[in-house]
Amino acid sequence: MAANPDPDAALMLRVKEGDMGAFETLVEKYKVPVMSLVYRTLPDMIEAEDIAQHVFLQVLKAAHRYEVSAKFSTWLFTIARNLCLNEIRRRMRHPADSLDETFREGDENPVRQVEDTRVKGPPQAILDGELHEKIDEALAALPEKQRTAILLCRGEEHSYEDIARILDCSVQATKSLIHRGREALKEKLKPYLRSGEWESP
User: How far out from the chain centre does Cα 179 lie?
Assistant: First the structure.
């Protein structure tokens, strides 16, 4: 790793030394992106909050083992994805428990979706609400790796290399996942989407 780690990795090294102020800074910065990823994977806001808390608890528990081998955000989102996968596996083992519950389990193995707060008139707000509902449905229908790759790619801080680390696959496979996911979304959203939101940068 370079001699000058990213600022968040530097904060995490302070957490490793017991600096709880640094930990609170990281939580404040990443709680919304983490919740967004979790909620898009298994949509239930209350449970998303619960799992986001588990993610940061795992960060704290693993702090003594932390080494700067990648960007902090890559490590963090790997933890978040692992917790999501644990819950998906649990639901497959116990489908009857999955009707109303989302996340409960943790794992010590270690996007920005921000609501648009611009004021819109009622007709535009209704149309936007319908569009977001269709986008959510289309995202939910994607395979987990495609969905996660798409969500991480939409943020500004994740490179293909970062996403590949989080998904534990090659950069080429990551690019393929993103391409296939975008094509599937465009096909499903063709009647609704005019903004080019899912086009490549």
Answer: 18
pLDDT for residue 158: 85
Question: How does DSSP assign the chain, residue by residue?
Answer: --SS--HHHHHHHHHHTT-HHHHHHHHHHHHHHHHHHHHHHS--HHHHHHHHHHHHHHHHHTGGG---SS-HHHHHHHHHHHHHHHHHHHHHH-GGGGTT---------------------HHHHHHHHHHHHHHHHHHHHS-HHHHHHHHHHHSSS--HHHHHHHHTS-HHHHHHHHHHHHHHHHHHHTTT--S-TTS--
Task: Report all structural domains of the chain as residue ranges with CATH numbers, in order of start.
Answer: 1-108 (1.10.1740.10), 122-192 (1.10.10.10)
Query: What is the distance between the alpha carbons of residues 201 and 197, in angstroms, rounded to a whole number?
Result: 10
Mean pLDDT score of the chain: 78
Of residues 120, 93, 188, 103, the one with CA closest to residue 150:
188
pLDDT at 89: 82
Q: In whole angstroms, give the CA distance from residue 199 to residue 171.
A: 19
